[in-house]
Every structure is written in C-alpha cells, then in structure tokens.
Amino acid sequence: MSMSLRCGSMRVLTPALALAASLTACTPSPPPVVRVGLIGVFEGAARASSGLPALQGAELAIAELNAEGGVEIDGRAHQLVLVSRQISNRPDAAAETARGLINLDSIDVLVGPQYSNLALTAGAVAEAAEVPMIAPMASGADVTKDRAMVTRLAFLDAVQGAVLARYVYDSLGLRRAAAMHNVASSYGREIVALFCETFEALGGTVVAVERYDADDSTAHQPQLRRIAAANPDALLLPNFTVHDSVMLHTLHDAGIRARLLGTDAWDAVAVRLGPEVYGTVIVANWDRRTNREATRQFLTTWQARYPDERVRATAVATYDAVRLLARAMSRAGVRSGRAVSDSLRRTGRFEGALATYVFDGTGNPRRGAVLLEVTPDSVQLRATMGPPG
Question: What's the predicted TM-score (pTM) here?
Fold first, then answer.
C-alpha cells in the first residue's frame, strides 16, 4: 500500500519522494533582491576623498535598509545587494563600467559616479538603458540636462552664487561686491553670473567682474589692481584652491581688503594660510556640525560602523542616494525603469542626512547648503540654509 504526504498542493506517492518534496515545498524561498550598482574612482587622492567614502555610504544605507526588512515593492520585501565597481578617473571608463553593470551584472539602479565629467558619460548609458541613476556629488548642469533617468543630489554649480549673494547681503550686510574667475571655466562663469544677478536683485551693487587665465599664475595682477580700485566689500573667487591660493598671497599687496567668498571647489582647511584669509566665507554641501536630526542619526550610525573613519560629504550623499532610490522603488511598485525615476522626482520634501531636498519633478532638487568661515583657529559653521523658494 503506498503512503502519501501533502504539503501545500503537492501530492507524493513514495516515502523518499515525499520527504524530498516536503523539504522543497516547505522551505521558504529566498526573498527577491534589488541590485544596486555603484561606480567609484579609487585611483590617487580620489580614493580617500571620493571612492571609499561612496562605497562606505552605500554599504551603510543598504545594511540599514536590509535590517529594516528590505524594500517593499508591489507587496513583497526585497533585500538590497550592492554591486560595486572601481574605475580610473576617465569618462570612457565610466561609460564602459556603466554598460557592464547594466548588461552583465543586471543592476536595477545606479549610484555614481561622483564627478560631473564621469557622471555625464555614465548617465548617457543609463539614459539609453532606462536605468534610474543618481549622481550624488555631480554638480555640472549637463549631467541632468534633457535626461529623464539621471538625478543629482549636489546643488547645481550656479546655485552657490545665489546662496552666497543672499548670505552676503542679508547676514553680513555688505552692499558692494566684486568677482574674479577663470576665463576658461564654465563653473566659475555660472556661479559669478547668478551671484551678480541675485546680489543686484537684492539691492547690492557689483562693482567689478574680472577674468584671468589659470594657466598663467602671474596674469592676475592687473585684475586685482582694478578690483582694489573699485573698493568692494566682498570678493567672490569661485575657483579651485590651487589657483586661488596663488592670488590669496597677493590680495593684501594689491590693496584689497574685501571679505573673501569661496565655493565648494575650495578646501577650507588647506586655505588657512594666514590673516589674508581670515573671515573668508565658503559655501559647502554639508558639515557634520549641522544641527539637523537626520544628520545626527546618520553620524551615530556611521560612528558605530566606521569608528576610525573620517566622514566625508561624499559618503553622506551616497547614503541619501540609496535611501531615496529605495523609497522611489517602493512607491513605484517596481525595481527599475522610468517609473522609478519618475517616482524619485516626485518625492517632494526629503530630510536627508546631507541636506533637506525638495524634489519637484526634475533631476535637480532644490536643496540646502551650509556656510563656513575661516578663522585663526579653525573653520567654523556659520549658517545652515534651507532650500531656496
């Protein structure tokens, strides 16, 4: 007489097959997964400032989300799996790696690269494949221009000009400003243009705008003399520190006594050269001293996981990127595709660890910033500014 065993809807007639079938049918299947691709630069100094922090930020977000039960998509909990790839600092490498992650590793969403020139080429690949991508720290306007699948978290380059103009006029009470930027840099041109527009709209006067050739370190003396003659209260220098530091030594000799203004291209610690930079105000993406609950929670978790690692803005932005994508998937009910990108861009207000973001339908969320001031002893946090508008 044959024996039978029923588990679920399966009917088995022999004892051996009954045991095997019962083990198969009654063992829970593993949860579905979401594959998160990450591209980071690990060569040279970029390893410590960009690649490794991005990896750590992504790992932290994924560990938290999985510990919370994963991401619920269409009624099912999904675990997140990180697929990380290291590249050299070349646009072609970024594009090739994005293709590999999408076509070979079957990722659902992409995070990074952090640099605008790399995000531009990787984003073109993601756009063509309809894979949602967040470039956490890429600030160049072209990264998201005319793209439906690519979103950023850093403020647009030019936005820094508006942030500085508002702070200089409203908080410092200064009314006369000048600017000097690298003639070949769209970064500097855009920041200066929006600074001047915003400052003048507030009621200030832009007394001089000068340009210089970054390839000739001696070519800025005539410009500095003209700025000194215009007698500004504030001087905007939206240039990379390696170039600005040459000028900083000569500002006093040129007769300039203006309050200096720097952008996120400045290294606030490296420019602490002496009295010539004391009082300099620098706009930045983030500062760990920001008194925001989301930031405090992130730092507590970070210190528990990486007690010996310095936290950098890149790590915080990447952490926010993963959590934003997870939220967008859950709201869209799918793991990838245009619906996730559309959901991300309709997030509305999001209190991230890096900043407060307002997503209103584009790949460029409005977001806050912080203002730092160089003092004789340190770099002080002076203001936390919310999203404009």
Answer: 0.82
